[in-house]
Amino acid sequence: MKECINKKEKLINHINELKNQKNAIILAHNYQPREIQEIADFIGDSLELCIIAEKTEADIIVFCGVDFMAETAKILNPTKKVLLPEIVDSECPMAHQLPPEVIIQAKKEHPDAKVVIYVNTLASAKAMADATCTSANADKVVNLFEEDKILFGPDNNLAYFVEKRTDKKIIPVPKGGHCYVHKMYTLEDAKKVKAEYPDAELLIHPESNPELQDIADYVMSTGGMVKHVLNSPVETFIIGTECDMISRLNIELEKVGKSKNLVPLRSDAICKSMKNITLEKIETCLIEEKYEVNLDKEIIEKAKVAIDKMLSLNK
Asked: Would you say 178 is a known binding-site residue?
């Protein structure tokens, strides 16, 4: 056991040395395993990491997340080197549900609609959008437009969340777009865990099914969950999103000397793609400076317009 701890410490020390030598920064999504979150310079949801990526002065960005996230960092930092520690198994299945041809067809059918797409999409899709959004600001982004019709994708459950918060007609693209992790949750899950923890607040991510959103105490992004749990007087929370969100919450609670009872709505709600990054892969990534994210210049320029529209909300 002691040997394992020493090996891990050496690995972390080497990663930190490499970061300093190469002026690199490590960004980690809330769904990364705890040991990855702990060595990151910044942890966050998609919006928070977008903002950090845009402002960083680092020469190298190591993105511990999935493919579309690293692409977004590259779009915001086209002259910087953006690295993804794992390339083979880094795909976000939902991001691949909205290829450009689906957007092209939807625009033909609804030429008077604006296109707002989730940042959980590939750069080629972002390049066709009028704006991107995250689960933290989707309704606000939609309301930036005067048009009454909005093509919104790829997550249909997030589209439901937005439609309840705007007067606009939201047209989900594609039909059936979803996150397989959040699709796991059922009313039976909620009733079962709520019966076990009757005083707990149920926090549900807007990628979850409408029936879960409708009975939740709060429907919010992962960033919203952090703020809520830290500031709420409630002691027990049922967390309806990917399981390692509890790791992020515990890290933040420990920083301020607090402790809360955090219960996963389902213990098997795991994003497999998020678990493929390891400390060893981060070390290799920094040593060999792989795997670099490269995008076509035209796609970067077009996609940045859509991302900047979203980021204008924070300026």
From this structure: no
